[in-house]
Amino acid sequence: MNTITCYWVYLAIHIQPRLSVHHEQNGAFLMEKISATPILSSQRQTTIWRIGRIPKVFNPTRWMWLMSLLLVLGLWQLITALSLIQPFLLPPPIAVIQEFGRVINNGTLWKHTSVTLGQVIPGLLIGVMMGMMLGYGIAKIRILEALLAPIIVAFQSVPVVAYAPLLVVWFGSGGQSKIITCALIVFFPILMNTVTGIRSVPREWREVMRVYRANHWQTFRKLEIPAALPILLTGLKTSATLAVIGSVVGEFIVANAGLGMYINLARTQYNTPLVFVCAITMALMAGGLYGLVSILERKLLAWRSK
In 28, 168, 195, 304, which residue has its Cα 20 to 30 A from 6's Cα atom? Predict the structure, then answer.
């Protein structure tokens, strides 16, 4: 008999305990807290922890997205099969799939997708860097907030479609104007999440850093970044999807290539399946960027589950 078994025999014979079991989850492990409360008041309560790996069970919520997709496709096919909407307005799914195959085979879809993606990524990076730097300054310096907040709010209240033509006039019809449009549309969410994240650091934690005589750089690296990281990554998820919108809006105004220009071309040709192809491609692009940020979030915040 091992030590744990002998101890249980001692509890059963000598103190006749009342047992209570409580389960707690810690990451990938299941911790079972077993409390033995003796009948005699002179004897103290005994607590034993038993740790074991959580058994893997089927999680149906992981596949809900697939069920939703199949439901949408089924309703779409039913509507088109019953001719409730004209195929000119809503083409059947098979027509969209065939158009997908055509533009993939001739290479035009990749050509326009690569142009849009080449504008989205630089615009996203520039907007994120600008938003984080200015957001950190606003969070730390109240005077800076009083000076810049009215300008930022006024600029953000103007739709991107309104100032996108001005950016084309100022920076030309090339990729520069689209990158700047992406950066501007990404800037505000990152700015607000940075300010919120830095200001959400508890005062008690800052006092602890002062007690240990940490300098500004140590406080920034050891306290402010880890504490604000969950909120910052949430803002980055939103910005990753908005960056695609910024690029496509710029391409709607004027462009020689890109998914926005390709949608305009399909619209003038009354090619509704091609419009659906471009819209689905943009959704997949935004979803891919969102997924990359989610993976980054799991890597950077893995310490929270330990």
Answer: 28
